[in-house]
Design a protein that fits this description.
This protein is α+β, with helices and mostly antiparallel strands and about 140 residues long. The chain has a single domain, classed as Beta-Lactamase (2-Layer Sandwich), CATH 3.30.450.70. The protein is built from three helices and five strands; from the N terminus they run ββαβββαα. It has a five-stranded antiparallel beta sheet, with helices on both faces. Helix 2 runs antiparallel to helix 3. The chain is globular and about 40 Å long. The N and C termini lie close together (about 5 Å).
Length: about 140
């Protein structure tokens, strides 16, 4: 399970952060930007689906959004409608490990926007956020 792209998308579907792993060419950046943009429809569809059981809790982890030819796209949406998207290669994935990675990225995002120098709704330019995302992605088993 190798993460090839991580993205944070704002509540108004504006990209706040997008990084490819390892840092790729402009063409790869554009490809993953397109994939992440396409995932927004899948996220909205999953969120709009009614709960199956009356006692079922809405989970921030959305799971697999859709597969592509060479990768799988997973999503997470917090209570503020900020979305985190991870694009993984087609290797074996473990939901529990992905769920933990999404939660860690959500905490890193919350810390980044708590910075008084960050302007809400603007792309995240924090080097510490980028380093933390790289650390989370690097800790996932290959």
């Amino acid at each position: 399970m190798t993460v090839v792209c991580a993205a944070v998308i704002g509540a108004h579907n504006n990209p706040l952060y997008l990084q490819t792993f390892p840092s790729g060419t402009d063409e790869e950046q554009l490809k993953f930007h397109y994939i992440v943009h396409c995932s927004l429809d899948a996220i909205e569809e999953k969120v709009a689906m009614p709960k199956r059981a009356p006692n079922e809790v809405n989970d921030a982890y959305l799971g697999l959004l859709f597969p592509t030819e060479d990768c799988s796209v997973y999503g997470y949406m917090g209570s503020t409608r900020v979305k985190i998207v991870l694009v993984l290669d087609k290797s074996d994935t473990k939901d529990q490990e992905l769920r933990k990675a999404f939660q860690q990225m959500h905490v890193a995002y919350a810390n980044a926007i708590a910075n008084p120098f960050h302007t809400a709704g603007q792309p995240i330019a924090s080097r510490s956020f980028d380093n933390r995302v790289r650390q989370i992605v690097g800790a996932l088993p290959a």
